[in-house]
Write a structure and sequence with these properties.
It is built from one helix and five strands. It is α+β, with helices and mostly antiparallel strands.
């Protein structure tokens, strides 16, 4: 009887630490992200859309996903804050041109 109770208690503790604790941490991180979102932040949404926050409301944000293209989303749809990627300048080729090298067809 005591063995069964200890085994059952151990299984409950195992599932608690394996499932409940990490999920609670994820919810806290998501809630912190939603409260910290501010105008000008570059974010990624749950659907994989990248955009810049232009307006922040109580439960929604307005993202600019392209010049003059804005969408209104629930704050809970924001999954991450991202860094703006620097634009790369084309590397000069050995012959001095800046056009990409062409690969001949076989």
């Amino acid at each position: 009887m005591l063995t069964t109770v200890l085994f059952l208690g151990g299984m409950i503790a195992f599932f608690y630490f394996l499932i409940v604790m990490p999920q609670r941490r994820r919810r806290q991180v998501q809630a912190q992200l939603m409260s910290d979102v501010d105008v000008g932040d570059e974010v990624m949404t749950l659907g994989g859309i990248f955009g810049v926050v232009r307006e922040v409301g109580d439960h929604h944000v307005v993202l600019e996903i392209a010049p003059d293209t804005r969408v209104r989303l629930a704050k809970s749809a924001i999954t991450a804050r991202t860094e703006a990627e620097p634009e790369e300048e084309p590397a000069d080729s050995p012959d001095g041109s800046t056009s990409p090298a062409e690969t001949p067809l076989p």
